[in-house]
Amino acid sequence: MATSKTYKVISHRRGRETVSTGTLAELTQSFSYTLDIGHSYQHEKGNKKINTKPKTIVSLVLNLNNAKTNAAANGCPDTYYSQG
């Protein structure tokens, strides 16, 4: 029986850390709202393209950080993500 690998994504906001664990599909589903918001702002000047269906955990973390940057009013988000 093949088991899926579990990953940790750590959300850093104002000195607090929140850890989310799950498979890549579960984490992508969990953070889908953040990815969708960043995706909606990707066509503005200076913003990055957002992949809403990343294939690796590194790509998920990168797209989450880019999505937060796209959605921030001044381009400097108060939340960032790292791989645990």
Number of helical segments with 4 or more residues: 3
Q: How far apart, in Å, are the first and last alpha carbons?
A: 26 Å
Strand order of the largest sheet: 2-1-3
Number of domains: 1
> Overall 3D geometry?
globular
**What profile does the largest beta sheet have?**
3 strands, antiparallel
Mean pLDDT: 94
Q: Over the alpha carbons, how many angstroms does the gyration radius reach?
A: 13 Å
Structural summary, described in words:
It is a single chain. The protein is an alpha+beta fold and 84 residues long. The protein has one domain. Helices cover 37% and strands 23% of the residues.
Give structural attributes.
single chain; 84 residues; alpha+beta; three-stranded antiparallel β-sheet
Write the topology of this structure.
Layout: E1 7-13, E2 16-22, H1 24-30, H2 32-40, H3 57-71, E3 79-83
Antiparallel strand pairs: 1-2, 1-3
Brief write-up:
With 84 residues, this protein is of the alpha+beta class. The protein has helices spanning 24-30, 32-40, 57-71; strands spanning 7-13, 16-22, 79-83.
